[in-house]
Design a protein that fits this description.
The structure holds two protein chains of two kinds.
Chain A (H helix, E strand, L loop, with lengths): L3 E9 L2 E8 L14 H5 L3 E3 L8 E3 L1 E2 L11 E2 L5 H5 L4 H5 L12 E7 L2 E3 L3 E3 L16 E3 H8 L20 E8 L16 H15 L6 E6 L9 H10 L3 E4 L4 E4 L6 E6 L5 E6 L1 E6 L1 E3 L2 H9 L18 E3 L2 E3 L9 H18 L26 E6 L11 H9 L4 E7 L5 H13 L4 E6 L2 H14 L7 E5 L1 H5 L6 H20 L8 E3 L4 E4 L3 H12 L4 E4 L21 H14 L3 E4 L2 E9 L2 E8 L2 E7 L1 E4 L3 E3 L13 E3 H10 L1 H4 L4 E8 L13 H15 L4 E6 L9 H9 L3 E4 L7 E4 L4 E6 L6 E6 L1 E6 L1 E3 L3 H7 L26 E3 L9 H19 L3 E3 L5 E3 L8 H5 L5 E7 L5 E7 L9 H5 L5 E3 L4 H18 L2
Parallel strand pairs in A: 8-20, 10-17, 11-12, 11-17, 12-13, 21-22, 21-23, 23-24, 26-27, 26-32, 27-28, 32-43, 34-41, 35-36, 35-41, 36-37
Antiparallel strand pairs in A: 1-2, 2-7, 3-4, 5-6, 9-18, 14-15, 15-16, 19-20, 25-44, 29-30, 30-31, 33-42, 38-39, 39-40, 45-48, 46-47
Helix pairs in contact in A: 4-5, 5-6, 8-21, 9-13, 10-11, 13-24, 14-15, 14-21, 18-19
Chain B lengths: L8 E6 L3 H10 L8 E6 L7 H9 L4 E5 L1
Parallel strand pairs in B: 1-2, 1-3
Classes of the chains: A alpha/beta, B alpha/beta.
Protein name (chain B): Methyl-viologen-reducing hydrogenase, delta subunit
Pfam families (chain B): FlpD
GO molecular function (chain B): iron-sulfur cluster binding; metal ion binding; oxidoreductase activity
Chain lengths: ~950, ~70
């Protein structure tokens, strides 16, 4: 339901009636074919809000090329007919009669059991802030405007131009924290969490969209916050590539004479006044709560914080009310991985609430009957994608199209701006029908991400899904040969030709169904593991929970309160009680996984518990093995009892609060073992941990001197409040650089910490009663699990997700999911939502009694004589030798493949001397045809 | 002008690692010469010796099996 808004809700969790007001679209969605003629003829231009008003759209429009549903709509505030009663041009030109000016708003009543709210955020609007000059200077743009300027589908088609004179800017500056961490000119005291990284990304991506080598990118920042997984490396890479980072907040931006470019004035840390000209200034605007939050809070009865974000409890970070769940920026600014994780977490909570009704309304998608193409001559349709400018910016797609037309068996060729868009899928179906195509080749991006989409399209067109073949002319061509357009075009032609010869040899394949073992294994009994286990058990899936220690709880047993002040011990106690008492959860402590065989839907493992070996069968597993505080090997740690880590100091504060509060001075050193060559990542939680401890100390004893030595304070999101509170309470912050770390020596009087204050340029020495080291978070050895499951970990040893943004809790091995600190350091609320998300994703596997296997499996041919060479080489033990007595009374030997175990690796096929075993979709004949086709160009072009 | 020899290479790329690596190289915009033609296979173990010799006999200057 688009153009719709919630008006009211009645009922309670499990049984709501939601009234929704659907505004008129004035276009009949069934009739509109999104041909765009209406927009072409519409005489009324309107600033295009999707492109941040950089260009115009029409009063009848689609928001952007990949909109779902891809149907036009009339903007009633701009339409000449709807505002002034005359025009109806669109109606005249629409070829399908889809325009309906009689369309009226309607109230729709929905019966639902749970509600997920995800209204998103709105960007901060810097209008009216004179010192940024956003209103008056053409070449000051917001980061979202800049994002559109860079985009291939944006107003300048990805050819970067600045607004004042449409020329390519060379010197570009980003200003961080515009509308964030600011209570002076606006009231957004929080950090928006994402702007540092998007600025770094924009700075790096800019280099791809500009010509020549005079480009210079400068980022003005306060603290650079690269606290996400792999973010610190990205930041370091940007520095290495020449992006300039200046720790300053420019205080004045003036237009340059002539109307183009800006002059910026700023003060460096050591007090020098600087003046510098830039061609373009980008304001890294922060995230704000949407205007709708208040209305939603009223309708669904939950509270908002002073910024307008929804308030949730750490124990269930996506719940605002009994049956009402939230995801994304509604309850705090956050980056995509976290928002996507929360979306799954919210779905999990809804599924838990409604588990009894699960599947009651499910309808199976049906496809037209599959056409048998075995007797048909191959007729190949080739679709060449431009991918905006991603492909067409390097490869001459028209030349590729013309070339493909001349290939054997090719019956139809077309170029698309985005072959993956919804409208192109309709087009492929239409063309397959019209032109009687029986093979499709898509020359676009990688089959690893997009083949399933096109397989679906073939099924909808009544063709077997395996009759599609992709030519990867983006990831493995245009993106990697950016400076060689001619060679790239030649390569693309070869790739298309190779895909066509393979497609011609593709056969219809069927996928096998296997039973799913509807039980789960959860590895790790910390908060994340327990959350996943409870979520799954409450949805009716039996769970085996393995914990390496002798008790449940993990790191949470050392934590007294969450970042937002919720008390942890009672929450943890309650959680452990629920887990231990749940009839569907079997807890094994002192447990260690020993083996893992099988695949999604059917895993078998052995584990050791209290010296005994046991077996477990399961359909999916959640890995939540946690992480630990590292042991510092610097700043005198271990040599003096007054030198602590966070966890040992927390313990001391609990046990001997009266002693600690008498301290005159407590010093903290940040990034101990993080962000260095050994652990080149940010441990994400230590800055906030220090703030919590510092605020607590200052609350215990206002006279106490608390000094924090830091590199960048990374109290992201609403955690910034703690940082502000610490400063208000008088905590001193002294920045140090990794080349000039604080010096620590111990004396009987105190722990002496010496450091250079970069602002006053004075070296200061502090005599501290306690020194607290913010030690890095490091993973427990995940090597064993990686080895057992053949799953992935990053260079730092944290378990990897299948895709950091799109699949943040799936692992690369199907049926495995990841949650908590073993994936990356994170605070408890994030670990909980990730665990809820992992449970939701695991439940997707476990809810089905049977599942479809991929069809790429090996099969035995009539040439097999039972020599059994393949049996030994099969790494999955999927092949067995079968002996039978024939009618002639003689013994026949042949091998047999178990398709549930076979992964289609084809080692058998490469070993077989007689072509007795092949892999579907990758037969020797197909591969050799591709080889021959690849080398075809040699005979013609090169002797 | 003397033309520099540029080999023409057939690459067999395992779907799960080398081919994924090739995709990642694209995402990371790592630039490399355009003289290899990649053939996606489900495992480098699928590449039989005769596929390699076939490629060489038909004129390939080199064969890369990556997995």
């Amino acid at each position: 339901m688009t153009l719709s808004q919630v008006v009211s809700v009645a009922g309670n969790a499990g049984n709501y009636t939601v009234k929704v007001r659907r505004s008129p679209r004035y276009v009949d969605m069934d009739k509109c074919i999104a041909c765009g003629l209406c927009a072409e003829k519409c005489p009324r231009p309107v600033a295009d809000e999707f492109n941040e008003g950089v260009n115009n759209r029409k009063a009848i429009y689609i928001k952007y090329g990949q909109s779902v549903p891809l149907k036009y709509a009339i903007d009633p505030n701009a339409c000449i007919y709807l505002t002034r009663g005359k025009c109806r041009a669109c109606e005249k030109f629409c070829p399908t009669g889809a325009i309906n000016f009689e369309d009226k708003a309607e109230i729709v009543e929905l019966k639902v059991g749970a509600v997920v709210l995800a209204p998103g955020y709105q960007p901060y609007d810097p209008s009216g802030e004179d010192y940024y000059g956003y209103d008056s200077i053409a070449d000051v743009v917001t980061s979202l405007e800049y994002e559109r300027l860079l985009s291939a589908s944006g107003p300048c088609m990805g050819h970067l131009m600045r607004p004042s004179d449409n020329r390519e800017p060379k010197r570009i500056a980003w200003l961080q924290c515009v509308g964030s961490r600011n209570t002076n000119r606006c009231s957004n005291g929080y950090c928006s969490s994402v702007c540092c990284m998007y600025a770094v990304k924009q700075a790096l991506v800019t280099a791809e969209h500009t010509h020549g080598d005079e480009l210079s990118q400068t980022i003005f920042f306060m603290d650079l916050r690269s606290h996400g997984k792999e973010f610190e490396r990205y930041y370091e890479d940007a520095k290495a590539k020449g992006v300039r980072f200046i720790r300053a907040r420019p205080h004045t931006i003036d237009p340059l004479r002539g109307g183009s470019g800006v002059r910026m004035r700023y003060t460096t840390e050591d007090g020098r006044q600087m003046e510098e000209d830039f061609d373009l200034a980008v304001l890294s605007v922060g995230m704000e709560a949407t205007q709708d939050n208040k209305a939603l809070a009223g309708i669904f009865d939950f509270s908002l914080d002073s910024y307008g974000f929804a308030q949730t409890a750490a124990s269930n970070p996506v719940r605002v009310n009994d049956g009402v769940f939230v995801a994304g920026a509604l309850h705090a600014p956050k980056a995509i991985p976290h928002a996507v994780t929360e979306a799954s977490a919210a779905a999990n909570e809804a599924a838990r609430l409604l588990s009894e009704a699960k599947g009651a309304l499910a309808v199976e998608k049906t496809y037209p009957d599959e056409r048998d193409v075995t007797q048909e001559e191959p007729r190949v349709g080739v679709f060449v994608c431009s991918c905006g400018i991603n492909i067409a910016g390097v490869i001459d797609v028209n030349a590729v199209v013309e070339y493909a037309k001349g290939l054997d068996h090719v019956a139809f060729v077309e170029n698309n701006l985005f072959t993956c868009s919804a409208d192109t899928q309709v087009l492929i179906r239409q063309k397959a029908e019209e032109m009687n195509l029986n093979r499709i080749v898509v020359a676009a991006c990688t089959p690893r991400t997009h083949e399933p989409l096109f397989q679906e399209t073939l099924k909808e067109a009544g063709l077997n899904a395996y009759l599609v073949e992709m030519a990867n002319i983006r990831n493995q061509n245009s993106w990697v040969h950016q400076k060689e357009p001619e060679k790239a075009t030649e390569k693309a032609k070869d790739q298309v030709r190779m895909a066509v010869v393979k497609a011609v040899r593709n056969k219809a394949l069927t996928r096998l169904k296997v039973d799913v073992n509807q039980k789960a294994l959860v590895i790790g009994g910390g908060v994340a593991g327990m959350t996943s286990a409870l979520s799954l058990a409450e949805q009716g899936f039996p769970v085996v929970l393995l914990e390496r220690e002798d008790r449940l709880g993990g790191n949470a047993s050392h934590v007294s309160a969450t970042d937002f002040g919720d008390s942890v011990p009672p929450m943890l106690k309650d959680m452990i009680k629920k887990v231990e008492g749940h009839p569907d959860i079997a807890v094994h402590t002192n447990a260690r996984l020993k083996t893992a065989v099988g695949s999604v839907g059917n895993f078998v493992s052995k584990f050791e518990t209290h010296g005994e070996t046991r077996a477990v069968t399961y359909g999916a597993a959640v890995i939540a093995t946690g992480a630990k505080e590292s042991i510092p090997d610097e700043y005198g740690f271990g040599s003096d009892p007054r030198i602590h880590t966070h966890l040992s100091f927390d313990k001391l504060m609990q046990a001997e609060v009266s002693t600690v509060q008498k301290a005159d001075t407590v010093a903290f050193i940040q990034c101990v073992g993080s962000r260095d060559s050994r652990r080149p990542y940010c441990s994400r939680i230590c800055c906030t941990h220090t703030m919590k401890a510092a605020v607590k100390l200052k609350t215990l004893n206002r006279a106490m001197q608390v000094v924090v030595f830091y590199r960048d304070i990374r109290t992201y999101g609403l955690r910034e409040e703690l940082y502000r509170k610490a400063r208000e309470l008088g905590v001193l912050f002294v920045r140090y650089s990794p080349d000039d770390k604080p010096q620590v020596r111990t004396t009987p009087e105190g722990v002496m910490v010496r450091g250079l204050d970069p602002i006053s340029r004075f070296t200061l020495e502090i005599e501290a009663d306690y020194l607290v080291l913010a030690a890095a978070v490091e993973p427990h050895g995940n090597e064993e699990l990686v080895e057992l499951y053949k799953c992935g970990a990053n260079a730092d040893g944290f378990l990897n997700e299948a895709h950091p943004k799109l699949r943040p809790v799936d692992m690369s091995v199907d049926g495995l999911f990841v949650a908590g600190l073993c994936n990356y350091p994170k605070p408890m609320d994030e670990a909980i939502s990730q665990a809820q998300a992992a449970a939701a994703r695991a439940a997707v596997v476990l809810s089905r009694k049977e599942m479809l296997l991929d069809a790429i499996k090996s099969y035995v041919t009539e040439h097999c004589d039972g020599c059994a060479l393949c049996v030994d080489v099969c790494p999955y033990r999927a092949i067995r030798l079968q002996e039978s007595t024939g009618e002639d009374g003689r013994m026949h030997r042949m091998v047999q493949v178990d398709p549930a175990l076979c992964k289609g690796c084809g080692v058998c096929a490469a070993t077989c001397p007689k072509d007795g075993v092949r892999v579907h979709g990758f037969t020797k004949e197909q591969i050799k045809a591709q080889v021959a086709s690849a080398l075809e160009s040699l005979s013609g072009g090169r002797a | 002008m003397k033309q520099e020899f540029e080999p023409f290479i057939i690459g067999f790329l395992c779907n799960w690692c080398a081919y994924a690596g090739g995709d990642l190289a694209g995402v990371s915009r790592l630039q490399y010469p355009a003289n290899m033609r990649a053939i996606r296979v489900m495992c480098s173990g699928m590449v039989s010796p005769d596929m390699v010799s076939d490629a060489l006999l038909q004129g390939a200057d080199g064969v890369l099996v990556m997995g």
